[in-house]
Amino acid sequence: MPRDEGRLRKEVVECGRRLVARGLVTGTAGNLSARLDAVRFLVTPSGMDYERFGPGDLCAVNGETGEVTGPRRPSIETGLHAAVYRLRPDVGAVVHTHSLFATALAAARRELPCILDAMAVQFGGPVPVARYAIPGSKDLADSAARTLGDGGAVLLANHGVVAVGGDLEEAMSRAELVERAAQTFLLAASVGKAVPLDNDSIRWIQTFFRTSYGQHPGQGKEGE
Ligand SMILES: [Zn+2]
């Protein structure tokens, strides 16, 4: 096994445990994966508690041929992960949760409008809802990947959330952001209604964060 694959296996296991610790999944629900190369990825095993599997229990899947290597059966949503990697060469990791507030919106088949600056930065607009399909089906894989498009996350009707990123950290933080934003959206409904950001504001925020937020060589001491 290449050294990088060993490290990636450890990261996937660690991220799975973080999903449980942060309340984004319970029991054996949800799954996650990380890309190994152009066609292969690592995915969590089916029906195993996140605390109970280690790096050696992950499945290596060839997304083109469907060939699975490893001692366990892969997640039932492996086809969904494969569909996303096929359509999105820029995606390095996929995180699927059933987090409570985002899944409430998914159950109502309501998209999550772009109501937070952080959503503008991470998603550049609303998080859409893929139409309902049976869990584990090719139909679900296709509709989720298509509805995700070039976005950062998608809700699965009556099911949960899929967040993607260039690496595991980005996909994880997007999964958390979807949940946090869904919670904010639903809380805002108790005092009126959350107001979505308009397109000009979203574009401005995206540009601002790309050019002015964080540490840029040669700049002064400003910002959060
Ligand atoms: Zn699921």
Radius of gyration: 18 Å
Q: What order do the strands of the largest sheet run in, or round the barrel if closed?
A: 4-3-2-1-5-8-7-6
- Contiguous runs where pLDDT drops below 50 for at least 5 residues: none
Give the H and E element order: HEEEEHEHHEHEEHH
In terms of DSSP E residues, the strand content is: 5-15%
Could you characterize the architecture of this molecule?
With 224 residues, the protein is α+β, with helices and mostly antiparallel strands. It has a single domain (3-211), classed as L-fuculose-1-phosphate Aldolase. Helices cover 39% and strands 14% of the residues. The chain contains 7 helices and 8 strands; from the N terminus they run H-E-E-E-E-H-E-H-H-E-H-E-E-H-H. The chain has helices at residues 3-21, 78-87, 100-107, 117-122, 138-148, 168-188, 199-211; strands at residues 31-35, 40-43, 59-62, 68-69, 93-97, 129-130, 153-156, 160-165. Strands 4-3-2-1-5-8-7-6 form an 8-stranded mixed sheet, sandwiched between helices. Strand 1 (31-35) and strand 2 (40-43) form a beta hairpin. Helix 2 (78-87) packs parallel to helix 5 (138-148) and helix 3 packs across helix 6 (168-188). The longest helix is centred in the C-terminal third of the chain and has 21 residues, at 168-188. The radius of gyration is 18 Å and the shape is globular.
